[in-house]
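Tutorial, part two.
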Amino acid sequence: VVTTHAMPDTASLMQQRKRWVSKSTSYQARIITVLMALVYLYNLSIVYCGVYAWFNPVYLTYFATMLFAKAFTEALFLYRVLRQFNQVKLLWYMWVAEPLHILYVLYVGIAGLSGSYEWKGRQVK
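Running the prediction step on this input gives:
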């Protein structure tokens, strides 16, 4: 477990997360990399089903089910964490942030593995 300071802005946060993702291919425990890939693919499939449902309403059920499963699973985890800090009321923000989180996962996954990032004032490729 590593403690890091909060980033002062969104651009700094994205640089930090891209750096973290870029290191993921070097993890000793391959199971972590596999789990990260599965999470990425699940988020990608939610977007795919959402776009496909726009053209074929039959896929709306798949989209809604996948979105609910993701949100419910994350809510269970977040509830346990937020309860420890007496901040359960913040759980309601998750429902607003959930669609943004999907896009965040997809962006950071691609950017972290294919692009460069800035760290300590240097551009790293």
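The longest helix spans residues 30-55. In part three we will examine how such features are distributed along the chain.
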